[in-house]
Design brief:
single chain; seven-stranded mixed sheet; six-stranded parallel sheet; globular; mRNA 3'-UTR AU-rich region binding; NADP; oxidoreductase; Quinone oxidoreductase; NADPH binding
Length: 335
């Protein structure tokens, strides 16, 4: 089958499209999905660069959507049929076919297109756990949160979901993506200069902490959702209200450097470094999150912005586009 493969970690050109990669064989409890789309996410670039190591060689990606092409006896007993439309998250989605455990499948409801459903899986589920669970209920409806980079894919979702949850939202965004952010319903936008060729904004171009304190009447925010990393760690901690939580989930500007725990004493703050897999541990939790997302989509409370669709043949270009900060929404491969 055709697949985008990493045999040696490196820059985007380490992602090589091969046409004779072994097609997966079906195992107990699995289905084979014929992929129509694969999502491109920052975590895929971390795998490709070796920041999050994987055994070599590997097929890139961990977000897919398509139709069921083959069903194991165990999956058939659960009512899964050839031709079912599904989305899912497992490793190895930059390919024509993927073997997926039946427990990982999300049935795509009528009225939701496959490109949108594929976009929901990693970014949508990530935004869901960030706004519903990772903050450990330290923020309540009516309280302030700060979300960095709301012009990008995941944090567009997070801003929308935070508003659905009843939080008041301050979003940071680059000037080039301000038009996208203005449609998210943030209570306050902090517009920053751009960093040429980067996937993040110039976080020194505005005194964000001062602006946050001004907006919140000097209190700060009860939660910061931060996928930027190195450039924003101090801003995020300094923006917190008393007993607020710093949720650090990404590394767009580089990994968060080590800092002493005493750094949190000023406001008796909390910090967490979560990952999606720990928030979809059970089938029930996965389905609960997906059902809420699909329900919000059907009700018009969420709108997914598919920014660009690359052919899988142009796999490296998809990564370059994402890492250059050009996306204003979801970036996909058409398989």
């Amino acid at each position: 089958m055709k697949a985008a493969v990493v045999r040696e970690v490196g820059d985007a050109d380490a992602l090589i499209v091969e046409t004779d990669f072994p097609t997966p064989k079906i195992g107990p409890g699995q289905v084979i999905v014929k992929n129509e789309y694969a999502g491109i996410n920052f975590i895929d670039t971390y795998h490709r660069k070796g920041l999050y190591p994987r055994d070599l060689p590997f097929v890139g990606g961990q977000e897919g959507g398509g139709t069921v092409a083959a069903v194991s006896d165990e999956a058939a007993a659960q009512g899964i049929k050839v031709g079912d439309r599904v989305s899912y998250s497992v490793l190895g989605t930059y390919s024509e076919y993927t073997a997926v455990q039946a427990a990982k499948l999300l049935p795509v409801p009528d009225g939701v297109e496959l490109d949108v459903a594929t976009s929901c899986v990693v970014q949508g589920l990530t935004a869901h756990y960030l706004t519903s669970s990772a903050h450990a209920d330290l923020i309540k409806p009516g309280e302030w949160c700060l979300i960095h980079g709301v012009g990008g894919g995941t944090c567009q979702w997070a801003a929308l979901m935070a508003k659905i949850r009843g939080f008041k939202v301050i979003g940071t965004v680059s000037k080039g993506k301000a038009d996208v952010a203005e449609g998210l319903g943030c209570d306050e936008l902090i517009v920053l200069d751009e960093v040429a060729g980067a996937s993040y904004e110039d976080y020194e171009s505005v005194d964000i902490v001062a602006r946050v304190k001004e907006v919140t009447g000097g209190e700060g925010v009860k939660c910061v959702i931060d996928g930027i990393g190195k450039s924003t760690v101090d801003i995020s901690i300094d923006s917190l209200a008393r007993r607020g939580i710093f949720v650090s989930f990404g590394n767009a500007s580089g990994s968060v450097p080590a800092f002493p725990v005493l750094r949190l004493i000023g406001k008796s703050a909390y910090v967490t470094r979560p990952k999606l897999l720990d928030y979809i541990v059970t089938r029930d939790e996965l389905v609960w999150r997906a059902d809420e997302i699909f329900g919000w989509l059907k009700d018009g409370k969420l709108k997914v912005s598919v920014d660009t669709v690359f052919s899988l043949d142009d796999a490296a270009e998809g990564h370059k586009y994402l890492e250059a900060g050009k996306s204003k929404g979801k970036v996909l491969y058409k398989i």
